[in-house]
Amino acid sequence: MPRTTTLVFAGDSITDSGRDRDDVASLGDGYVSLIARAVAEGGETVVNKGISGNRAVDLEARWDDILAAGPDVLTVYIGVNDMWRRFDSDDPTSSEDFEATVAGLLEASRAAGVERIYLIEPYFVPVRDDQVAWLDDLNPKRDAVRRLAERFDATLVELHDAVTAAAAEHGAAAIVPDGVHPTPRGSEIIADAWLAAYAATADAQKVGSA
Predict the structure, then answer these.
(1) CB-based burial of residue 53 (10 Å sphere; 0-12 exposed, 13-18 middle, 19+ buried)?
(2) Residue 197 vs residues 105, 156, 176, 194, 204: alpha-carbon distances, Å
(3) pLDDT tens digit sequence for 39-93
């Protein structure tokens, strides 16, 4: 019997999405559950390790637990709370500190033998006029995620532009009512972006091994 591929998703509330943290099989009702349905026929095992409110430093504090889930494919989706806490709690995270922390997580993951890593680009859609300036804090963190993807040969899942465009077309209330937390339609955008990146990576691997 072939070995099952384990997909582990680490992140904040967008990943958590109401999962039961006392049930390791619980995936919540967001993008992770949609991905699990999409890959079910391939036999992949999906593990949700998202926790609402997490920043990069919170992932760092529990990274051993995340790696203990045995990821063959690891997805890291973090960054919006590193922005948000600056504005709701006066507790900022610099883009330099954010990048250094996530780099440490990726270094530990590679050292643990994780071969395939996906980094999801954080997004934010301002829903109030005063929030437009918040992007000045998020954008350098988005840039950091891009640099980290290149540095660690990880697959970048681009998301910010897709979510922003969908919100502009359909209204933020239909996609991300508070600018961050997705509706079911918003979760589909995230899942579709990840699945497209996953399929492209799989196709590239097939070509490389041919």
Answers:
(1) exposed
(2) 21, 8, 22, 5, 11
(3) 998 889 999 999 999 999 999 999 999 999 999 999 999 999 999 999 999 999 9
Question: In terms of DSSP bridges, do strands 116-120 and 155-157 run parallel, antiparallel, or are they unpaired?
Answer: parallel
d(CA 155, CA 174): 28
Closest Cα partner for 159 from 134, 186, 178?
Answer: 186
Q: Does the structural domain 6-209 have CATH classification 3.40.50.1110?
A: yes
Q: How far apart are CA 130 and CA 107, in angstroms?
A: 37
104: Cβ contacts below 8 Å, ≥ 6 apart: 60
Strand partners, 46: 7
Domain locations in the chain? 6-209
